[in-house]
């Protein structure tokens, strides 16, 4: 009787047949320039936190301005941020607010609804954004 035949490895020194190969993860790419510390894409309602063109957080879901109150695309700088801000214009809280274009800010809000121009985020996304960004950081908004 002949002995059991062993299959050759897929490559010398590699795993045996039947062992799944390790495939490196595909890096997440955001549609903004390398100077952006935050990137937002309005068409897909996504945002990313960035460092030298590499994603450090995200994508995280967002919503933006409704018709007549559109969030404008462009490159902006963070003006200021407040952990607990009260909007006198809308008589509403803006937790984890980061202002980057006049009175437009990122903050916690229902992402299922459009806003009056602000970027609404989940609690986790808004807090991560607030903690990551500082005045002067570049925020890029693409269509």
From TrEMBL:
Gene3D superfamilies: L,D-transpeptidase catalytic domain-like. Keywords: Cell shape, Cell wall biogenesis/degradation, Peptidoglycan synthesis, Transferase. Pathway: Cell wall biogenesis; peptidoglycan biosynthesis. The keyword Lyase does not apply. Residues 36-142 form the L,D-TPase catalytic domain. The keyword Glycosyltransferase does not apply. Coiled coil: none annotated. It comes from the Bacteria. Signal peptide: none annotated. The active site is at 107 (proton donor/acceptor), 118 (nucleophile). This is L,D-transpeptidase. The lineage of its organism: Bacteria, Bacillati, Actinomycetota, Actinomycetes, Mycobacteriales.
């Amino acid at each position: 009787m002949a002995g059991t035949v062993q299959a050759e490895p897929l490559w010398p020194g590699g795993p045996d047949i039947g062992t799944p190969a390790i495939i490196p993860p595909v890096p997440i790419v955001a549609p903004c320039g390398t100077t952006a510390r935050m990137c937002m894409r309005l068409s897909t309602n996504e945002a990313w936190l960035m460092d030298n063109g590499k994603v450090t957080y995200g994508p995280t879901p967002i919503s933006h301005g409704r018709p007549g109150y559109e969030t404008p695309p462009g490159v902006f700088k963070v003006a200021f941020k407040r952990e607990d801000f009260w909007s006198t214009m809308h008589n509403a809280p803006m937790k984890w607010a980061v202002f980057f274009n006049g009175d437009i800010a990122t903050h916690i809000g229902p992402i299922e609804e459009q806003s009056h121009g602000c970027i609404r985020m989940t609690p986790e996304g808004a807090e991560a954004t607030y903690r990551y960004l500082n005045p002067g950081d570049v925020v890029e908004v693409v269509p």
